[in-house]
Amino acid sequence: MNAWFGHLWLARLLLQRGVAAVYLIAFIAVLLQFKPLLGERGLLPVPDLLKRTTFRQVPSLFHWRYSDRLLTLVAIAGIILSLAALFGLIDSSPIWFSVSSWLLLWFLYLSIVNVGQKFFGFGWESMLLEAGFFTAFLGASRIEPSVIPILILRWMLFRTEIGAGLIKLRHDPCWRQLTCLYYHYETQPLPNPLSWYFHRIPAPLHRFSALFSHFVQVVVPFALFAPQPLASIAGALIIFHQLWLIVSGNYSWLNWLTMVLGVSAFSDRILSLAVPIAAPPLAPIPFTWHIILWILAVATLALSIQPALNLITPNQVMNTSYNPWHLVNAYGAFGNISRERYEIVLEGAADRLITPATQWREYAFKAKPGDPRRMPAQIAPYHLRLDWLVWFLPFSVAVAGHRIHVWRHDLWFIRFVHRLLVSDPAILKLMGKNPFPSEPPAHIRALFYQYSYTTPEEKRQTGAWWTRRQLGIYLDPVSLDTLRDI
Predict the structure, then answer these.
(1) Residues facing residue 362 across a β-bridge
(2) Stretch (H or E) spanning 15
(3) Residue range 378-432, pLDDT digits in tens
(4) Residue 283 dihedral angles phi and psi, to the nearest 5°
(5) Crossing angle of the two packed helices 203-214 and 230-248, in degrees rounded to 10
(6) How far, in Å, are 232, 233, 238, 400 from residue 221 at the CA level?
(7) 43 contacts 419 by C-beta, under 8 angstroms
(8) Do the Cβ atoms of 191 and 369 come closer than 8 Å?
(9) d(Cα 315, Cα 427) in Å, to the nearest integer?
(10) pLDDT-based confidence at 486, cuts 50/70/90?
(11) How far apart are CA 54 and CA 39, in angstroms?
(12) I want to staple 367 with a disulfide (CB 3.0 to 4.6 A). Which of 131, 362, 377, 451 is the partner?
């Protein structure tokens, strides 16, 4: 490689291992969560979606056929391929086998995401698909690396960071006023054990952190295409910023994958200071492979037109795919910050007849706030899809003082309540402790709460992480008779 980019063998190796590790986590989550949520008896069954779509609209191998057994085989195949890539077995093989294996890994996950509906509608799903596809073209470990796929991954990192930075500056004024972090750690989707402490950082440090975030996401990415060591410095700043986000919250593999992409900014000379691995003797890039990579570069440029225009438009959108293959997407998150935290709390009762004396028992989730005394969980880079979808529910509720207005209930949520009424074991595995271990409840209701972090004094006295007050009822008590037709 020339002096501009430096040698890239070690960078390629770390990129491949990093993307493989994220794939592994993603496929494990599919194996453990997909069927209760989207399987044949799921909350949003895949077969129903497939009846309404075509392969051209939603590319997926499940258009051939869907069954829960086939889904399990796909998830296990993804896990095996991810492990093979993680341990270098794929990339130590001939180049055509290596590329084919990576593309198969990408297509297996694409097949899952494209039928995953709301439960897979997160920006980091498209990120993994885009990163996984272009990782396939990094090449086998015994061949000289090409700068083309490295630059494509840098371009992806550029769009991820710039998209996130601009969406903030264009939307919520608190980002321009440097005050968004006054609220963010308390209202983020799934706080972790350190989020409470980050929330208590003095206000001047919150403002500095917001300013630093703008610098890293809006200014630094332009240095990704500068000569070394400037590109490496940009990559290091981006990785540091992502580490800050990792220790302060749970965002699935979003930050982890962004850090992996940050490796694309480094040269081997700098990476070897932390990872002292020497490159083996390398064969030159085959001529045919050169041609394929240049075709890939041209195709990427063509696909980049819409995402690039999106960055410069005042009506910027975030986390959008412009093609069903999830390649060269638009990214960005947290354009708006909630000032208050609202939560849906589900409760069950054993009484067949509801009276003022009825005792209600609360259901727990694995990570979503519930019991104020329970310490927030550290779950990332794993992804709890049910917890995230329940966190989104309050955004469809109008809150006016101590009153709420519920516009509608999502179909998946009503089906979810139905599963609780029958104590469906597959759904209960996705949740925390079951308050009805012996027999199903007769009724389920959902309450609407406002949550706030405790003060340091309250936390010392009570041990509680949260305080909460009920604002209304999200779902009145329902029974199996009520939901008979769901």
Answers:
(1) 347
(2) helix 9-38
(3) 999 999 999 999 999 999 999 987 789 998 999 999 999 999 999 999 999 999 9
(4) -85, 155
(5) 140
(6) 11, 10, 8, 41
(7) yes
(8) yes
(9) 39
(10) low
(11) 19
(12) 377
